[in-house]
Write a structure and sequence with these properties.
Blueprint (H helix, E strand, L loop, with lengths): L1 H7 L18 E4 L9 H10 L3 E5 L21 H4 L1 E8 L6 E5 L10 E4 L2 E7 L3 E6 L8 E8 L2 E6 L5 H15 L13 E7 L4 E7 L5 E12 L5 E8 L4 E6 L1
Parallel strand pairs: 1-2, 2-9
Antiparallel strand pairs: 3-6, 4-5, 4-7, 7-8, 8-9, 10-11, 11-14, 12-13, 12-14
């Protein structure tokens, strides 16, 4: 569900493993980072210290590369950068629901409450700031969402298994704040995504419609060339169901 929020906005995402170099990214997302190899947590710390934004979730930092549990509290080697420690995790029945209630005047500028289903981790904020707390059950009032300032960057910890609405609102705010680049700066209708390819000078946008219905989009007065037929496109673009357009931005 994390990836889907970027797919819907036409934001290119690299899917990498933990041994890859991630030092040049703005945003690093590692949901349920259950196993952590030696040196990875230290590299994440350096990434955040240098101004990066790190997002992780419940069930992270549990075991090492040999599947042995970290001692000294979870999320293991991520405890310092996230600024929290996890005491235990509550498993909800399929029909159960709790809620994460946003704190007033939180830095994400989110309001109200979001459903928590499936898993609710019980965490303690050490150096982290609490952005939302659980509403119900024996852990009501305990942190559900935190942010830890670490060097020049920040580390977010999402303690509850959430819905698409929470992730959409959460990532909308992060994308806006750190100015994550989109493949094309337009609103994409449901079912349409955009991917970008470039040689360093020319930009090629692949608009793909994964819906059976035709979709239309406004191009915000920018000019493009349809690479499939050489036609210049200004204003509105139409894509047939399951169709594709390859555009070069002029």
């Amino acid at each position: 569900m994390h990836y889907q929020q970027f797919w819907k906005k036409g934001i290119p995402v690299d899917v990498i493993d933990m041994v890859s170099d991630f030092s040049n990214y703005k945003l690093l997302i590692a949901p349920m980072l259950y196993m952590i190899r030696p040196g990875v947590a230290e590299r994440i710390e350096e990434f955040v210290k240098s101004g990066g934004i790190f997002v992780t979730t419940y069930w992270s930092g549990i075991v090492d590369e040999n599947d042995l549990c970290f001692l000294g509290g979870f999320p293991g080697p991520l405890r310092k950068v996230t600024g929290i420690w996890a005491e235990e995790i509550d498993t909800l029945y399929d029909n159960d629901v709790n809620y994460a209630v946003l704190c007033k005047n939180n830095e994400l500028e989110l309001n109200g409450e979001y459903e928590a289903r499936g898993l609710c981790e019980l965490i303690h904020a050490e150096t982290a700031k609490i952005l939302a707390s659980y509403k119900d059950d024996f852990y009501a009032g305990r942190p559900a969402l935190t942010v830890n300032s670490f060097g020049e960057g920040q580390a977010y910890y999402i303690a509850f298994k959430n819905t698409k609405q929470f992730l959409q609102d959460f990532y909308d705010k992060l994308i806006k704040d750190i100015k994550v680049m989109r493949a094309i700066d337009i609103e994409l209708p449901e079912g349409v995504t955009a991917q970008l390819r470039t040689d360093g000078q020319r930009k090629f946008i692949f608009l793909m419609n994964f819906d059976k219905e035709e979709k239309s989009m406004e191009l915000n007065n920018s000019e493009y060339i349809n690479m499939l037929n050489g036609e210049k496109i200004i204003g509105t673009i139409h894509i047939l169901g399951y169709g594709i357009k390859i555009l070069e931005q002029l």
